[in-house]
Structures are given as structure tokens and as C-alpha cells.
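Hi support team,

I've been running sequence recovery on a batch of backbones for a student project. Most finish fine, but this one hangs at about 90% for roughly twenty minutes before it completes. I'm not sure whether the input is malformed or the queue is just slow. I've pasted the C-alpha cells below so you can try to reproduce it. Let me know if you need the job ID as well.

Thanks,
M.K.
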């Protein structure tokens, strides 16, 4: 993990800078960190949605798909914080695409809006979708400013937005 300090508290953060895993010091507001933070936010909201599904509508297929997505997002964020590292693999994109193709025919007719009769997970999944779309835009900006092999990361976030919409429809159907 490079030369990143092991202390939990360091003074460099107090002046608006942080360490990347390679030991380099960067400003906290650079596009790379903005994208990483937005991906972390997305992962948190997906975790919240997953907890709501576990409580209200325990759908094992959806819960497992969201668990894998959370792992993928952790990997994407980690790769993004390491300049030059590939942003995910074709395998992860293909897995997500296959899930979408499997679920799509059954869910396309359902509404995309949320209403008061819906389980809380519907709203959480729609919020996650909005954050996902913002994450994709932030990643595009980060890759323009600081190129990195990222086509699979972008493809993944683009598909994830579709997946989250389908997942919200699945919750409405149940």
C-alpha cells in the first residue's frame, strides 16, 4: 500500500489534502477523489436499500446481487484511488449485464416513480440510481483530467443505473 501513514489521525487532512495509496499527497477536491467519494456514497445507499429489503421483503436474488455490487463498488473505489490501475474487469460488467437481461422482461412495465404504498427500499433504490448517475459523471470528469484505464468502470456504472431502476421495479412488483 505504498507509503501511506498508518496513523488514524494525520495533520495533512486538516489543510485539505490527503494521501493516495501510492503515498502521493493530493488535494481533497480533485476530480479523482470526488468520483471516489461519490462511489462510496452510492455504496452506502445501496447498503441501506439492502437492509430495507432484508427487513421488509427478503428477496434472496436481489439481496445477493446487491451484495456483489457493493463488493464491485469497493473494488472500483480502491482502483480509482490508485492512479494507473484498471477500473474493474469485463467479467464484472458481463455479470451485471446478464442479471439485467434476466430480470428486464418481467419488470419493464412497472412504474419508475415511488409512492407512499411502496416499501422503503423502492425509494432507497431510486436514490441510489440518482447517485449512480452522478458517480458516472464524476468518473468521466476524473478520467478526462487524469486518464486511467477506466472503460469497464464507466460501463459498470452505466449498467448499474439500469439495474437499480429494475431493482426498484422488482420491489414494487412484490
Amino acid at each position: 500500500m505504498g507509503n501511506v501513514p498508518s496513523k488514524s489521525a494525520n495533520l495533512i487532512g486538516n489543510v485539505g489534502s490527503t494521501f493516495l495509496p501510492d503515498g502521493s499527497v493530493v488535494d481533497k477536491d480533485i476530480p479523482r477523489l470526488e468520483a471516489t467519494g461519490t462511489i462510496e456514497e452510492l455504496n452506502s445507499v445501496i447498503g441501506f436499500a439492502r437492509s430495507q429489503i432484508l427487513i421488509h421483503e427478503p428477496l434472496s436474488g436481489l439481496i445477493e446481487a446487491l451484495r456483489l455490487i457493493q463488493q464491485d463498488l469497493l473494488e472500483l473505489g480502491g482502483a480509482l484511488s490508485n492512479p494507473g490501475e484498471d477500473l474493474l474487469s469485463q467479467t464484472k460488467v458481463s455479470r451485471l449485464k446478464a442479471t439485467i437481461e434476466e430480470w428486464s422482461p418481467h419488470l419493464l412495465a412497472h412504474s419508475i416513480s415511488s409512492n407512499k404504498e411502496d416499501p422503503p427500499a423502492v425509494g432507497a433504490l431510486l436514490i441510489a440510481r440518482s447517485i449512480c448517475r452522478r458517480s458516472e459523471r464524476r468518473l468521466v470528469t476524473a478520467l478526462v483530467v487524469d486518464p486511467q484505464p477506466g472503460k469497464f468502470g464507466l460501463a459498470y456504472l452505466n449498467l448499474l443505473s439500469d439495474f437499480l431502476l429494475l431493482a426498484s421495479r422488482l420491489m414494487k412488483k412484490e
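--
Follow-up from support: It reproduced on our side and the slowdown came from queue contention, not your input. The beta strands are 17-19, 25-27. No action needed from you.
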